[in-house]
Amino acid sequence: MQPFSKKTKIIFGITAAIAILMVVAGYIVAYRYKAIIQKALPAAVADATDSLYRISVKNVSINVLTRSVTLKGVHLWADSAEIARREKDSTAKPMYFEVTAQRLTVDGIMWDRLTGGEGYSCGNFSIARPVVTIYKTDTALTIYDTVKPAPIEREFTASRVRMHNGNIRYAAAGGRDTNILKLNHCNIELTDWELGEESLKDTSRFFLAESIAADIEALQYAPPSSDYNFGLSHIHYNTDANKLTARDLRLKLKISQEEFFKKQKEQKDIYTLDFPNVELTGINLHRLMKKGELHINTVHLNHSKINVLMNRMLPPNTKSKVGNYPNQMLQKLRLPLYVQKVNVHNGGVTYSEIVEKTEMKGSINFNNINGTVTNITNIPDILEQDRHCVVKLQGKFNKYTDARATFRFVLDDPKGAFSVHAQLGALQGRQINEQTKAFARVEIKSFSMKSMAMQLAGNQDEARGKFTMVYNNLGIRILKKPENVENGKKKKGLLTFIANNLVLYSANPMPGEDVRKVETYVKRDELKSFFNLIWKNILQGVQNTAIRDLEVIDWIRNNEEEAKDNQTQIREFFTRDKEKKEKRKEARKRKRDSSPRPSE
């Protein structure tokens, strides 16, 4: 190998010297800027937050060539002395934040703006594995918070702000150790982010950014005062697509049903929700940021299941439910809301009740539900255009029977006015046998329904309806009370014979007669729900259609021994009663036939 020439050695020497000078200069400049950052950062945080927040950093490293800064061991918190001062004069903020992060990296820093005091500008602002805790303040300490914050003199801008694998916690007032809301494994990116006086006023920005993309692995919500846990997973939101999707929306008890009922002093429903897939499209961020109104174009609910369980073995709940109809609840909602349309695909609803009289559990099931809900709103200017929310659903009742229902809610009516038009298709006795055993101690021996239709209108006080049920071959067996069973065998009684032969209409229409159409009227029990009022009208319609005299059944059920001793008299009573009704019916028919008809 030939030795380097003198010229080559000089070139290498100069190059090495330049490199050494650059490294030394870099260290000097980095040290200078490190001092500037360490000095400027607390001042910048205090300036941007009106002296409320403090920040500490364990280590700062700078790369001048890439214009990047890395902060390790970052801790941002609200100053306790400042919080105490504000709480004392009732000017506290509604909530405070605390942030810890393993690493915070800023690149593409505009050194000239930083050193010149113009502001803070960078390319990317990345936070790795942060834990963000939000503390809610007691509202009594914020009622006089009318102080205008100091203006932001120096802006802070970033091309992108990223949170990687962060966790967000929300704690209630006075309960800093209780996390009510948890967002786990959050990856969030804000584009063209800007903190300044103008950007704070710009309602087109969402979290001060032009656009946002978020992926959150799980959301958990569990208020200490609630019996339920709420959860949601795989949440995706993107302002460019203007769509939010989520999976596994669930609401369920924190404890078992048995434990729940043991701690209850009165009747209370148990709700279980399971929504595997939820999608929201057309979210109007401009209206949300400018007016605080949530506008959503379409909500898609796929394969959603709702289960309700009521234990009637417990003492009745004496708290009035007046004012809790769906449209009345929407009126009370503090958030101005407008959902143009909800699409329901393959949903399911099950209502179960543990009945006090029978100590049995009966369930009513609707599955394969498809339909729409339109115009869900409490916003006055939208209500001026359309004040009705319309729910149109169709599905299967107890697996096999076609069911359709249309609900119309008057959204601005203080009494919660509503109407219902419902239809059921063909139904066989075996489909409702378990329910009638549990709810009424009646076994369906035979029954074939061709159709049922109901039109109902009401409000928080009452409901009136028209009911028609077409059926034939009705036969039942009245189940005995426990005291009428010996050695596992039911005592013989007269009630079933009387019911099938003298009390019930075996068909509608009866041979040679017109279809019986009945009217219903139920005064609302203020201790019962909206759906209880509908159910009571249906039950009344069924009874008035199928039973000649319900009071007689109740009397015989309660006086069965006396009834056995008076079988002949009871048969004669029902025979005479039947003959009287036939005569009255014939008289009404003759009167109709003799009445003059209007000219065409």
Q: Are there runs of 5+ residues with pLDDT below 50, and where? A: 6-31, 483-494
Mean pLDDT comes to: 80
Given the C-alpha coordinates, what overall shape results? elongated
N-to-C span = 126 Å
The gyration radius over C-alpha positions equals 36 Å
The number of helical runs is 14
Helix content: 25-40%
Biggest β-sheet strands, sense, barrel: 22 strands, mixed
Strand content: 35-45%
DSSP summary, beta strand count: 24
Structural class by secondary-structure content:
alpha+beta
Summarize the structure.
The chain has helices at 6-48, 80-88, 111-115, 197-201, 257-263, 285-291, 326-332, 380-383, 433-440, 495-503, 530-546, 550-558, 560-565, 567-594, and strands at residues 53-63, 68-78, 95-107, 119-128, 131-136, 155-171, 179-195, 211-221, 228-238, 243-253, 270-283, 294-302, 305-311, 337-354, 361-377, 388-397, 401-410, 418-424, 427-428, 442-458, 462-478, 485-486, 489-490, 517-523. The protein has 600 residues and is α+β, with helices and mostly antiparallel strands.
